[in-house]
Write a structure and sequence with these properties.
Blueprint lengths: L11 E2 L1 H18 L5 E5 L5 E5 L2 E5 L2 E7 L13 E9 L6 E5 L2 E2 L1 E2 L15 H15 L7 E7 L3 H5 L4 H4 L1 E2 L1 E2 L7 E2 L5 H16 L4 E5 L2 H10 L8 E3 L4 H10 L4 E6 L1 H8 L14 H10 L4 H9 L3 H9 L4 H17 L7 E7 L5 E7 L1
Parallel strand pairs: 7-10, 8-12, 14-15, 14-16, 16-17
Antiparallel strand pairs: 1-13, 2-3, 4-5, 5-6, 6-10, 9-11, 17-18
Helix pairs in contact: 1-2, 5-7, 8-12, 9-10, 10-11, 11-12
Length: 366
């Protein structure tokens, strides 16, 4: 008997894989007059997985099946979503396959996402995977009939409010995503892809300005400071500094702002391309050297070098009246590191915020 995976290591399934399983289950229900309890589904990565059909029904030329998404140990906003496939027989249209998005599946409202504006946000790989599974389930039946598949997600519009979809211009629901069909626990690959997609979408609309922030709080701070820039120009890059800058460089953007607080600024200044704690560590000796340069006492600098957070350094220097000078040094170091990643003609502005949202330092230039 295989050992259970340790907590935090259990894989799950993408919305695309669950939609494909639901569609295959609904197709089988349509053909056989009753829904299956389970359905074996081929994933885009070539593997086969048995999914449970949690609800299904069949009524003549129409059938439905539901698969509940299990994201494993990944903190996925769509975990527990009811991926629902409704299939309808298309008489006198043999071999035809039609795929639509229903309630709870977002609609694309902006160009630059690799999807047609006005269409459902079902990405190309899931589209192909859904069709492949439905055709496999239907077999010879499709020689006599066509089939229409509609994917819906009850409550998807509410789920989507907690995702990047509204910022990307995908409105009214979640996206049907997945390259492999598998969600790896605590995987950030989906976040990175969405972030890069957001930058591409900004450029595709002819906009040449981009504001990158390290999270929701710094985004709010930056929006308050840069209130003349449209909201859709703001992208949360999270820890993916290198990937965000590479995408900005390749997208032809001409003005890039970055808003961050002390910890991320210190890592960016070190030249770190992924600022996640598991991917990179802070060089506190370097932070202490910055503190020394702005006039920090030797006692304070020794304590900073032995500390573990830049926030501690900032609070220590605040007691000596050096918080602003320290933030300016962090911002300048980060600005130089960012400029090395972007073309010379791109104007870069670094904004350094404290934890209450006050702008303590700014560096700008080409």
């Amino acid at each position: 008997m295989p050992k259970p995976k340790p907590e935090g290591k259990r894989t799950g399934f993408t919305t695309g894989a669950c939609a494909a399983a639901a569609a295959r289950g609904a197709a089988l229900a349509l053909i056989h007059g009753r829904p299956p309890a389970h359905v074996e589904t081929d994933l885009p990565n070539g593997s086969s997985v048995l999914f449970q059909i949690h609800h299904g029904q069949s009524d003549g030329d129409r059938a439905q099946a539901v698969v509940i998404k299990d994201a494993g140990d990944d903190p996925d906003r769509t975990h527990g979503a009811h991926l629902t496939a409704t299939v309808v027989q298309l008489a006198h249209q043999p071999g035809l396959f039609r795929l639509e998005g229903g309630d709870g599946v977002g609609r694309v409202t902006r160009p630059g996402l690799g999807l047609e504006v006005g269409r459902a946000a079902i990405n190309p790989v899931p589209c192909a995977n859904i069709e492949m599974n439905v055709r496999a389930a239907c077999g010879d039946w499709l020689q006599r009939h066509g089939i229409s598949v509609t994917i819906s997600v009850p409550g998807g519009a509410v789920m989507a409010e907690k995702t990047l979809n509204p910022r990307l211009g995908i409105l009214g629901g979640i996206s049907i995503l997945g390259i492999s069909g598998i969600v790896h626990p605590y995987s950030t690959s989906a976040y990175r892809k969405a972030m890069e997609q957001g930058i591409r979408a900004i450029a595709a609309q002819g906009e040449r300005r981009l504001v990158l922030t390290t999270g929701g709080r710094t985004e709010r701070f930056a929006m308050a400071e840069l209130d003349d820039i449209p909201e859709y120009c703001f992208v949360q890059m999270g820890d993916f500094v290198g990937a965000a800058l590479a995408r900005a460089a390749s997208s032809g953007l001409r003005e890039v702002w970055i808003g961050a607080m002390v910890g991320k600024l210190a890592k960016i200044g070190q030249g770190v391309r992924n600022t996640h704690a598991h991917k990179s560590s802070l060089d506190m000796v370097r932070v202490a050297e910055l503190a020394r340069r702005v006039g920090g006492s030797e006692t304070a600098c020794l304590a900073i070098a032995q500390g573990v957070t830049v926030r501690f350094a900032a609070e220590t220097l605040r007691e000596q009246g050096l918080e602003h000078a320290f933030m300016e040094a962090l911002v300048q170091a980060a600005w130089r590191a960012v400029k090395r990643e972007l073309p010379e003609e791109v104007r870069v502005t670094l904004l350094g915020f404290d934890f209450s949202g006050s702008l303590l330092a700014q560096e700008s230039g080409c």
